[in-house]
């Protein structure tokens, strides 16, 4: 049986690693947990106390191919700070409509690669 509190890593390719890093670090406020280079450039982002982190891979032969349903949803359990949304947009994001459900319950911002970050007012 897998422990339900197991750590999670979400990994995905990036076209412009520096731009996506800026979006999540300067815009969202994630911290750089690890950076490395080799066959691929890698940046791992998150919060040190979180049980998840986001791994961004540059220089991969896999091109990002986000769809409108490739979502990273953060459940804020409260109002979305418009200053946070403005920071995300100022750091390369694009505010987008995500359909009736998500537009009712939050704000969606596409990162520079087109992957969508939903800041939800709901709790999980």
UniProtKB/TrEMBL annotation:
Species assigned in the record: Actinoplanes auranticolor
Gene3D superfamilies registered for this protein in UniProt: 2,3-Dihydroxybiphenyl 1,2-Dioxygenase, domain 1
Protein name: Glyoxalase/bleomycin resistance protein/dioxygenase
InterPro entries: Glyas_Bleomycin-R_OHBP_Dase, VOC_core, YycE-like_C, YycE-like_N
Pfam families according to UniProt: YycE-like_C, YycE-like_N
Signal peptide: none
Occurrences of domain VOC (ranges): 4-122
Domain of life where this protein originates: Bacteria
CDD domains for this protein: VOC
